[in-house]
Design a protein that fits this description.
Elements lengths: L31 H22 L2 E2 L6 H33 L7 E5 L9 E4 H28 L3 E2 L15 H11 L13
Parallel strand pairs: 1-4
Antiparallel strand pairs: 2-3
Length: 193
């Protein structure tokens, strides 16, 4: 009997929006998670590349919320690139393409051209593609981390008066504004000293 208070995440039926067949191929629906995760990964790479090309602001520090959202985005991309996509490829290759150890991709029974006899089963091809996905993901990680550190810095925008904003702690900036006689909003400050 089914317990109504237990909800198994693996048993949730997620609708597959892919068509039954494309150009006579029956593989889009079984490869649905692989296709959707790859598409999400590519969209994330495009967003990261566009975000990386914007120059960083030199006068503003990163807020806690920005750092948290950025770390979450990086975690999602790393999970997709190193976990979900290779795993879904292995499941798709073994279960739907039937690339298992009983069939051969390359089989040399005799000495051919000086090569000793060897066998390469189709499951090794699936493992090779999963390894290549991980190598490409690692290359993308190195590229994006290096490019993020080397991105251009925007020139600080000066105020209308041409005065530079004072550097330092908030208290030091407040004292400098009071010494100049203006508030943070540009209004005159009167002090009784």
């Amino acid at each position: 009997m089914h317990n109504a208070h237990v909800w198994h995440l693996l048993g949730v039926d997620v609708p597959n929006l892919l068509p039954e067949s494309v150009f006579g191929s029956r593989f889009p629906r079984p490869a649905g998670r692989l296709i959707w995760s790859s598409l999400l990964f590519v969209v994330g790479l495009v967003v990261a590349y566009a975000w990386m090309k914007r120059p960083k602001k030199s006068d503003e520090k990163v807020t806690w919320a920005q750092a948290t959202l950025g770390a979450f985005f990086v975690w999602v991309m790393l999970t997709l690139g190193f976990g979900v996509i290779p795993s879904e490829w292995i499941v798709f290759g073994n279960a739907y393409l039937k690339f298992d150890s009983s069939t051969y991709l390359v089989r040399v029974d005799q000495f051919a051209g000086g090569l000793p006899p060897f066998d390469i089963t189709r499951d090794k091809f699936v493992d090779l593609v999963a390894t290549l996905i991980n190598v490409v993901s690692l290359g993308l990680v190195v590229y994006f981390f290096a490019a993020w550190q080397k991105r251009k810095v925007a020139e600080p925008a000066g105020e209308e008066t041409g005065d530079e904003t004072p550097k330092g702690s908030p208290l030091a900036r407040l004292r400098a504004r009071r010494a100049g006689g203006t508030s943070a909003y540009g209004r005159p400050v009167t002090t009784s000293e």
